[in-house]
Amino acid sequence: MNLQSWIGVVLLAAFLSFVVAGSNLRVVSANHTYLEISPNPLFLTPGGNDVLDLWVRGLDDSDQLGSYNLTLSFDPNVIRIDSVVGGDAPFDSTPDFTVDTTKGEVTVIATPSTGEPSKEARIARLNVTAVGALDDSSPITFTSAELTDGTNQPISAAAGDGGSVNIASTVVRVGSASVAQGRSTTVPVTVSFSPSGGLAGYNISIDYDSAIIKIDGILSGDAPFGGTPIFNINEAESFVNVVGFHGDRPGPVGRTVVMNMTVTGIAKGTSGLGLTVKDLVDAENADSWTAAAVDGLVRVLAASSNVGSTVESALASSSSETGKPVVLEGAVLVDLTPGVLSQLSLPNQKATLTFPIGSVTERGFAAMKQIDAEATPSPPSGFSHGTVIEVNMLDLSGNLLYDVFLSKQATISMSLPDASRITSDIVNISIQRYEPVLGRWLALPTTVDHENMVAIAEVDRLSIFALTIDGTIAAEASSSTTSDGSAVSGDSPATPSDDSAPLGGTDQPDGGGIPAWVIVLIVVGIVALSATGYFVSRPKRIQSRR
Fold first, then answer.
1. What count of other Cβ atoms lies within 10 Å of the Cβ of residue 355?
2. What's 176-239 look like in SS3?
3. Using an 8 Å Cβ cutoff, are 70 and 141 in contact?
4. Which of 499, 488, 485 is nearest to 452 (CA)?
5. Residues 95-105: what's their mean pLDDT?
6. Are strands 42-44 and 163-167 parallel, antiparallel or unpaired?
7. Which of 118, 128, 122 is nearest to 110 (CA)?
8. Domain annotation for the chain: domains and CATH numbers
């Protein structure tokens, strides 16, 4: 071999050694990795609050996120960053953060608590409050971003377009949820309404992916939207139209859950819940209002997935410590997140549990199931059980959490038996919680709303709950229902009448409800629009979407 060939071999070997040595010092390509803020834009009413999610997307199986150090800018005259909480595992722990309210900057730093995510990760959630005026807007931009992989090497990522927070007079928002395949959950729809007079009614449409989820039905919301809405589910075209209204005057102002949608997971995947707002009506002059529309989504977990399979196991397991079932087949599940309002309802609408923002400090699940009253401890003397439910909390891996205290009280509402409709002066109706340590039932301060046929109480611990009622009334109620709890006779749940009172029986100002002609006009309009295809045809997306 001549000298020139030897030199070529030596240079090639040196080059290969340099490549191998430098392979551990590479910067991961930014072609497929980027930062995202969701929802974008976020709409808030004046003084309202919500959550912004920070995502890292486009990671692959070899380029995984190990830590991050992010700084975002915002307009402190428009919004306020109240706090920062964790995202999804393994970034579910509360990160280190600082907020400069003068400069308008928030810095968030975290490393994963366990393991490493791949492909994408929701790494943090910002709790945001609107402090500006109507129609103000604040951009949210990444001013610096440092990402590292599992070996502490830098990942180059694009900052994307950032996001924005806009202040609007009315906002309609569809919630999001996770559900195991073959199981059901509820998704709330909230309206944030600031015009004087309050909200009287709504007309909305929601489209979805029928290959991923099925819409089973629409349930009532918070008072005064305690009656069953009018709805039409078009399975062929995968959308549902819903109309709801009430007769109270004034109507609610601020954020109100106006309805709950019951959803069953069909196949693993994610279905968007695309919202179209057709109309909102105030309770003062029956004026129509446009609204910002915020979409939701439902994530269906397959039985073979990590969280899904663990939760599935927990649903079928028993507690060795108590010897009683933990969560049985047929339970309704809902995600619990510190900065998000969550709600779950039984499909038969006999019980609803609402967790306010800040009620939990860590992410997890809540599960609720109606259980047989005969299998529960005997009711207090002089009372009989109505509906009995068991509510449990699980962590993100599906492990049962014992004796959890809520940071803020949750609201539980349970339907009254039909017989109590004719005895509205009865006071011995209450929701009671079974305390296994004491081995007895504890009565909760209970508000009975005979107009909407529900009992309501506040709870700070989860356990078995029962609607307890005078034995005579309970016997009358049982004679009017079948063995499976369905009504034999009597009225079905309906929209409250014009003279209905709000929860707690607070007196209304002079003027009563909306004039009868307005209600008649709304109903006639709905019927007329149905005949022309407005109510049953697939809607056009006319509002802003997430």
1. 24
2. CEEEEECCEEEEEEEEEECCCCCEEEEEEEEECCCCCEEEEEEEECCCCCCCCCEEEEECCCCE
3. no
4. 499
5. 93
6. parallel
7. 122
8. 34-167 (2.60.40.680), 170-301+517-531 (2.60.40.680), 306-478 (2.60.220.30)
Report CA Rg, the chain.
27
Distance of alpha carbon 236 from alpha carbon 377, whole angstroms: 46
Task: Provide the residue type at 145 as one letter.
Answer: A
Furthest C-alpha separation in the chain = 111
pLDDT tens digits, one per residue of 491-542: 333 333 333 322 223 333 334 445 544 454 454 455 444 444 444 444 444 3
State how far the Cα of 439 lies from the Cα of 453, in Å rounded to an integer. 30
What's the helix, strand, coil split of the chain in %, to 5? 10, 45, 45
Residue 282's φ and ψ, nearest 5 degrees, are -85, 160
pLDDT at 28 over 90: no
Residue 476: burial class (beta carbons within 10 Å; 0-12, 13-18, 19+): middle
- This prediction has a pTM of 0.52
Annotate 389-413 with b (16+ C-beta within 10 A) or e (fewer).
Answer: bbbbbbbbebebeeebebeeebbbb
| C-alpha to C-alpha distances, 410 to 128, 336, 360, nearest whole angstrom | 22, 12, 10
6: phi then psi, degrees, rounded to nearest 5 = -60, -45
Nearest alpha-carbon partner for 544 in 188, 40, 162, 38: 40
Give pLDDT, residue 478: 43
Instruction: Dihedral sign for Cα 475, 479, 480, 482, please.
Output: positive
**155 and 63 Cβ atoms separated by less than 8 Å:** yes
Q: How far is CA 250 from the centre of its chain?
A: 27
Bridge partners for 442 per DSSP: 433
φ, ψ of residue 274 to 5 degrees: the values are -80, 120
